[in-house]
Amino acid sequence: MILICTFFSLTCKKHDADTVFNGSARITGAVLFTNIATNTNDTAKKATITMTQMGNSSANDYVTQLTNGTFDINNLKKGAYEFNIKFFYTQPGSTNGDYYTVNQQVTFNPGQWLNPYNFVLTIDSTSSPTLQIEITDAYGNVINNANVCLYSSPSILTANQGTCVGSVTSGVTNAEGIVLFEGLQTKQNYYVSAYASLGINLLSNWSATASTAVAAAQGTSPLAHQSDTLKPTGQAVIFTVNPVATNVPADGVTTVAIGAKINTALLANPQNVVFTSGGGTFGNGTATITQAADLNGNATVYLKSGMVGTFQVSINYDNLTQIVPVTFVPAPPDAIVLSAPPTLLDTNANNSLPITITLLRNIGTPSPGLLFNYTYTATGSIGALAGFGSETASSTSGTTSTASFVFSTGSPNYTGTVTITVSLLQNPAITSSVIVQVVN
């Protein structure tokens, strides 16, 4: 008897070998297993092979454990052999494992070499309640990065479609369109909500009625499995725009927050958002800024303006654009300071009195074009004021305004004081006074 183990992956162990290995046949190949997480045939590196010669009751089993999934067995005699192969595999990141097996009969003739001869193991049992969900489109194409949510009742599913809120567990399909849920509950029905984005379109399995109940399986074959087909449901909400404050003071300093919220349920890794405004400037001093979204999908920028008006701000993400209007209103002063000549010579007619109005604002600069009201009181020892200009005037810049008023007196010429009060038309509480002494 000659036993040859020419493969690097095999550890040989036999009993009563003379009754098994005394021929000229040979078999080489690999042991694969159909991975329930991908439905692909992967290498079962540490599979255990038990080989029994059929029809020879006196022959003991030949047992070997592989180390890299390949085998090369020589000097087999003519006849049929039963190959029983087992493999235990734990998915990456999982604490549960699954059992894969195959029982297959192989017949050899003298001098025959079966090469390559591959064994494919299928799932035999799972060590925890497990459910395999496969997502495809209406044409049978697998959909990766689809969100799959398991619910304990159809009413909770219906109330939270598109968010996974209230789900028992959730996952995202892999490149093969599969998501595997392990560690579920036995005797528990689950309801599946699945959705994915395709460009600006939303695909889902949503309908007027909840999905069919499906139960997880443990220790059984075949594996508990459900296939869901996603169909166009509408336009996917790729991102939303946060509410924007209105009536922002156009003082060149006060900012308004403009934010976008990327739907991370559809896009797991949000990227840059581009904001462009028709007026004002962002924090970088220009009307366009690129802002990276954070892990929660939030991107926020700040806009300011020294000009009054409504500006359209476009928000672009992933070649999709939304537009939000931002309105800047006149920035009022917080205070008014007046100055005028301390004395004025009364010439009886067409007396000109210049007044300088200085506008003060705690934040930024007041807006130009503000309107003022003027009133006066006169306390004189001689004569009386026959008239005083009381017209409404406006500021010509954001900080100061100069106005000249003409007044006339009766006879004799007026001598005494004139108190002039200026107030903001939009807010009369913002006011100031100046006293001028009129002399002959």
What does this structure look like?
The protein is mostly beta strands and 440 residues long. It folds into four domains: 10-125, Immunoglobulins (Immunoglobulin-like), CATH 2.60.40.10; 131-235, Carboxypeptidase-like, regulatory domain (Immunoglobulin-like, Sandwich); 239-329, Sandwich (Immunoglobulin-like), CATH 2.60.40.10; 335-439, Immunoglobulin-like, CATH 2.60.40. It has one helix at residues 154-159, and strands spanning 10-13, 25-34, 41-43, 48-53, 62-66, 70-76, 79-90, 97-108, 113-114, 119-126, 131-137, 147-151, 169-172, 178-181, 189-198, 201-204, 214-215, 225-235, 239-241, 248-249, 255-262, 272-277, 288-292, 298-304, 309-317, 320-329, 335-339, 343-345, 351-360, 371-382, 385-388, 393-394, 400-409, 415-424, 431-439. The strands form six sheets. Strands 1, 2, 3, 4, 5, 6, 7, 8, 9 and 10 form a ten-stranded mixed beta sheet that branches. Strands 11, 12, 13, 14, 15, 16, 17 and 18 form an eight-stranded mixed beta sheet that branches. The longest helix has 6 residues, at 154-159. It starts with 9 loop residues before the first strand and ends with a strand. The relative contact order is 0.09. Residues 1-19 have low confidence and may be disordered.
